[in-house]
């Protein structure tokens, strides 16, 4: 009996060692896997942050260079405006000081109408019509609806403004038909051509003169007038920020 007890004790030790050893090994592997996963996550986060930082630095450099170019252009434009004002002063004409303000679209006026937007427009005056510019090109007009400013994109039938076509500055009125932008009321004796550039004329005091509108892609002969279908430069469906012309001259 005295010999059996040590054997039983040894067997118990072997069993406990095998059982708890595998459990400990399993937990050790689990902890090790968690540690490895943690360090991989940390590595990925650090790599992402470094890449993001490099990308932001590149963006900052590009925007800084772009800003300097814009500052140069603004300086030249200011100089040009000053010289022009001096000429106008010498000829007893009014000074030329156009202005535009930044506006922001907030929502559609009607959910099924994608060419009309409510806009945040500081200084809006009820009853006035404002030309709207996006990316240096005509985009539409702002009008009053329920005493609030409403942006109407230029392909909408509610949008209309005066334009000139080509080198000869053929007069017309740009009107939307729901899909296209059409230059209407062109006198029959004038001859616009496909490929002619279209600019705002400024004669209706909605836009400055010379804002690019688009290019003539088709000329239509009608009974009393001619019309020209315009391929517009502005092609955005839902612009966020635009400029509204508040002073033409």
From TrEMBL:
What Pfam families is this protein classified in?
MreC
Domain Rod shape-determining protein MreC beta-barrel core: from-to ranges: 151-235
Indicate the transmembrane segments per the record. Answer: none
Q: Protein name, please?
A: Rod shape-determining protein MreC
Give the source species: Campylobacter corcagiensis
Q: Which gene encodes it?
A: mreC
């Amino acid at each position: 009996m005295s010999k059996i007890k040590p054997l039983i004790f040894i067997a118990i030790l072997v069993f406990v060692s095998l059982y708890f050893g595998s459990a400990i090994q399993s937990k050790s592997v689990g902890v090790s896997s968690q540690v490895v996963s943690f360090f991989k996550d940390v590595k990925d986060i650090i790599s992402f942050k470094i890449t993001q930082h490099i990308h932001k630095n590149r963006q900052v450099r590009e925007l800084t260079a772009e800003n300097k170019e814009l500052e140069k252009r603004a300086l030249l434009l200011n100089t040009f405006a000053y010289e022009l004002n001096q000429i106008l002063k010498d000829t007893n004409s009014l000074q030329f000081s156009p202005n535009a303000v930044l506006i922001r679209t907030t929502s559609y006026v009607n959910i099924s109408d994608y060419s009309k937007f409510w806009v945040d427009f500081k200084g809006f005056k009820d009853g006035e019509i404002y030309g709207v510019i996006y990316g240096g090109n005509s985009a539409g007009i702002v009008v009053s609806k329920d005493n609030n400013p409403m942006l109407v994109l230029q392909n909408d039938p509610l949008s209309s403004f005066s334009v000139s076509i080509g080198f000869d500055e053929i007069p017309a009125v740009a009107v939307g038909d729901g899909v296209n932008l059409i230059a209407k009321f062109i006198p029959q004796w004038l001859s616009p051509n496909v490929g002619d550039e279209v600019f705002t004329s400024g004669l209706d005091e909605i836009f400055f003169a010379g804002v690019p509108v688009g290019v003539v892609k088709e000329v239509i002969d009608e009974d009393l007038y001619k019309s020209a279908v315009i391929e517009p430069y502005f092609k955005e469906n839902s612009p966020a920020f635009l400029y509204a012309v508040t002073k033409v001259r």
